[in-house]
Amino acid sequence: MGEVVLYSSVSVDGFVADENDQPGPLFDWLSGGDVPLDGSGAVKVSQASYDYTRPYWDRIGATIVGRHVFDLTDGWDGKPPAGVDHVVVVTHRPPPAGWDPGAPFHFVGGVEAAVAKAQELAGDRVVEVAAGDVGGQVLAAGLVDEVRMDVVPVVFGSGKRYFGSVHAQHLLADPAEVVQGDRVLHVRYRVQRPE
After folding, report:
1. Which of 64, 87, 108, 186 has its CA 20 to 30 A from that of 118?
2. Where is the Bacterial bifunctional deaminase-reductase C-terminal domain (predicted)?
């Protein structure tokens, strides 16, 4: 089974969005460079960010998001973002009316079921979990292998927290990798398991 990775761009004070669910400048690093990160040509990053991000994106087999993110993005119009093969949506509500049942989106009722479904779909590829409330729940359930953060030099002061509403301590290993891009610091941590 593929590894489970909690991931997002994040402010230096730990937020993935402001109080109005807006990312503000968190994704500016994705348009501030001169190296195309995907086939669209709209996403351009520094060479250092490309060398760090592209190999990771190529390993993602499924992404897990909450219903809130799904609704905010209008389900990406039924096309998973960044070339991901499948999106697993954690929700207790049915898909929206008129939703294409053939779209590679899977609706499940809890984080454990979401991880199991995503791992089934991804095979030996990475299962990415969007940071925020659902990501925090997956971490709290002991199902995250790695935490990846694209730390952006901005302070929000309040908003949507990277780890959601996690209220327990979780120990991470020393950084496995730190890469400085333009207007972003890419950091990767392994999650330490209790012995």
Report:
1. 186
2. 112-178
Residues 105, 119: Cα–Cα separation, whole Å: 14
Contact 137, 167 (CB under 8 A): no
Number of DSSP helices (H) and strands (E) in the chain, helices first: 4, 12
Task: Please give the domain boundaries of the chain with CATH numbers for all domains.
Answer: 4-191 (3.40.430.10)
Q: Which residues, other chains included, contact 125 with Cβ-Cβ below 8 Å and sequence gap of 6+?
A: 2, 59, 60, 61, 62
Instruction: Check residue 102 and report its DSSP letter.
Output: T
* Nearest by Cα to 188 from 140, 145, 130, 125: 145
pLDDT tens digits, 122-169: 999 999 999 999 999 999 999 999 999 999 999 999 999 999 988 888
At 13, the amino acid letter reads D
pTM of the shown model:
0.94
Q: pLDDT per residue over 65-101, tens digit each? A: 999 999 999 999 999 988 899 999 999 999 999 999 9
Q: What is the enclosing helix (H) or strand (E) of 53?
A: helix 47-59
Within 13 Å, how many C-alpha atoms sit on residue 190's CB side? Answer: 6
Query: Distance between CA atoms of 25 and 27, rounded to whole angstroms?
Result: 6
DSSP letter for 94, please.
P
Q: Are 121 and 106 in contact (CB under 8 A)?
A: yes
